[in-house]
Amino acid sequence: METTDSIKAIVLAAGKGTRMKSSVPKVLHDMLGKTLVERVINQVLNISNISEIFVVVGHQADRVSDFIDKVYAVNACPVRSVLQQPQLGTGDAVFKVYDNLKSFNGTVLVLCGDTPLLTSETLNNFIDFHRESKAALTVLSAILDQPKNYGRIVRDSSRNVKRITEEKDANQEEKLIKEINAGVYCLEWEKVSPAFFDLTTNNEQGEYYLTDIIDWSCKKGLKVEAYTVSDNTEILGINSKSDLAFAGRLLNKRVLNNLMENGVTIVDTESTWISPETDICQDTVIFPGCYIEGQNSIGSNCVLGPNLFIGGNVTAKDNVKIFQSRVSNAVISENSSVGPFAHIRDSVEISNNVRVGNFVEIKNSVIDESSNVAHLSYIGDSTLGKNVNIGAGTITANYDPLTRKKSKTCIEDGAKIGSNSVLVAPIKIGRGANVAAGSVITKDVPSLSLAIARGQQKVIEGWVDKKLKTMSRDNIIAEN
Prior knowledge:
Blueprint: E1 7-13, E2 30-31, E3 34-35, H1 36-45, E4 50-57, H2 61-71, E5 79-83, H3 90-95, E6 107-112, H4 120-132, E7 137-143, E8 152-155, E9 161-165, H5 172-175, E10 179-188, H6 189-192, H7 212-219, E11 224-228, H8 241-261, E12 265-266, E13 273-274, E14 279-280, E15 285-286, E16 290-293, E17 297-298, E18 303-304, E19 308-311, E20 314-316, E21 321-322, E22 326-327, E23 330-332, E24 337-338, E25 343-345, E26 348-350, E27 355-358, E28 361-363, E29 366-367, E30 372-375, E31 378-380, E32 382-384, E33 389-390, E34 395-397, E35 399-400, E36 405-406, E37 409-411, E38 416-417, E39 422-424, E40 427-429, E41 434-435, E42 440-441, E43 450-451, H9 463-479
């Protein structure tokens, strides 16, 4: 619901990103589990009073629009795509949103879709400064010792913002200016939007520059301000794969520092990667080689790693240990352990005091408390009760290749499955039942019963001596 303080945002995401050398649109490149444009949009969504976001798309517009529609389909704040075709500059990109803002007379935030390090805190401070100064237009600036390739903020003798001059259009005196344009703007739409009808392509690039609205506003007598960002790394734009890697390291460093300040032990910050969406409680220890991305929640006193991947909605409660494994879309409850070399995926719930050991894969299954799946097993589409023991080499055969359907396996409380067994689903192993080692079980096993399904053992006494004599005779014949 819009109020008098409502803010609308325009995210510029139409560029081709030639220097990325990729068939993937620049804004859809991944950084710690989120695309660049997602990282920007998600920070904007955390702005106070944000009511609507427009994403201007151009290069591979359908691909970018489809992605945005999918990710933000049920978002409380609408996120809409607007097409810019052809791409005639940043000023033209903002103008493409004009029809959507005809009746809006509030504040509009404009920013780029390739600046993933911008924080909602900086954006909120920027907007507050804009409103408190009662400016018609405010630009986010930064002070750089080496401002090459950035547009310069030109001020008059009274230090008032006069205009922004792009690097290619700057004279030698302007190139000495160290205050640069960070590419983020806050404007009062009713006052400044007429500027977009007066923009021209009279510049080195032959494009409609968004920065020209500064000069236009000054000439109209409107108040123009600049707010200097406190952390220059926030304004870093991604133009190449090396930029992407560098910004990823900066984002990761920010995350790790915050976690360590809040009591998490990270043994090696150089080999540990954690996305900002992951929450980790104090006294958890993270060993080298861990990569954790997605919306995860890790409790206190956990041990993670070394050499671990966690991705996509994982909850590990207090005192959980996960060693050298891959875990996604799972809940692991208190005092349970996973690994080494386990693979947990696709909707798994592991209760308290459960042990999942080495070379175990668990998929779409529920394991109740105090159960063990210790070695070399596959558990798929299964429900295990309390105090269940799964012997080494046990397989739940859940897939029928003819019908292409998967069936359920149910193993009730206290059941014991012997080593090297196959449970062919659909099947139920009753409470306290035992399955003998080496069995292939195709029928339900009643509670407190023993199921054996294997070939009968046969012993041939003296077979080795007879075999050796035969081999000796054959060797003599072969030699002659």
